[in-house]
Amino acid sequence: MRALRGLLVHEARLLGSIGRWVGRRPHGVGRGAGKAFGYARGQGAMMFGFGFVCVLESVCMAVLLRNHPAVHRVVLVLDVYTLLLVVGLHAASVTRPHVLDDAASVLRVRRFVHVDLRVPLASVASVRRELVTTHERGERGSDRLDLAVGAQTTVTLELSVPVRYRPLVGRPRDVRLIRFHADEPEALVRAVRDRVQGSVGVRAGDRAGGGTP
């Protein structure tokens, strides 16, 4: 029952993302929430292809079922709903970018509506631009998380302290290595490094001061 409820919430958020996309209202961005880094460009062509296939299938089924109007209506509803989900996936990618939240000192790594991983900057051991196009399937208990877009990731994040990842289906697990895609990986890596180094400098300064008036 919990899994079914999670899937229903997931689909509702996907459909809601279409409204955000049309209204240009990104989620978790603005009002001092931090700097956004998109990742949707890497999958635009693929999503367009999926949408085209859905429309083509709908037209073909309309021709094949022209003598069965009742069945055609059911199939048409399913085809339209499938097309809405495809549009919702792309809309979610556009409206839910990665966010570097200075106020909370976290990097929000996101993917569609089902991944919103808050990584504390204090736990970042290293971050680098790294193009990876082949991702091995993660085994149960693996501490690696791959969030590929268009079958590739461009940023690799290594953590000194693991963070808990809660998948849409399956058990939560702790991850230490996160590979994800960003449209502008150099800018994201540079921004994270600046924040991490700044945080280290502040902590070092606090220890050196020792609170002496």
Gist of the model:
The chain is an alpha+beta fold and 213 residues long. The chain has helices spanning 2-23, 44-64, 69-95, 185-209, and strands at residues 35-37, 98-101, 106-111, 115-120, 124-132, 144-147, 153-165, 173-180.
Account of the protein in words:
- It is built from four helices and eight strands.
- The longest helix has 27 residues, at 69-95.
- By secondary structure, it is of the alpha+beta class.
- Mean pLDDT is 87; it is low at 201-213.
- The strands form two sheets. A four-stranded antiparallel sheet has the order 1-2-3-4, with helices on one face. It has a four-stranded mixed sheet with strand order 5-7-8-6, with helices on one face.
Poorly predicted spans: 201-213
Write down the overall geometry: elongated
What's the total helix number?
4
What's the N-to-C terminus distance?
A: 59 Å
User: Structural class of the helix and strand makeup?
Assistant: alpha+beta
Q: How many strands? A: 8
SSE topology sketch:
Elements: H1 2-23, E1 35-37, H2 44-64, H3 69-95, E2 98-101, E3 106-111, E4 115-120, E5 124-132, E6 144-147, E7 153-165, E8 173-180, H4 185-209
Helix pairs in contact: 1-3, 2-3
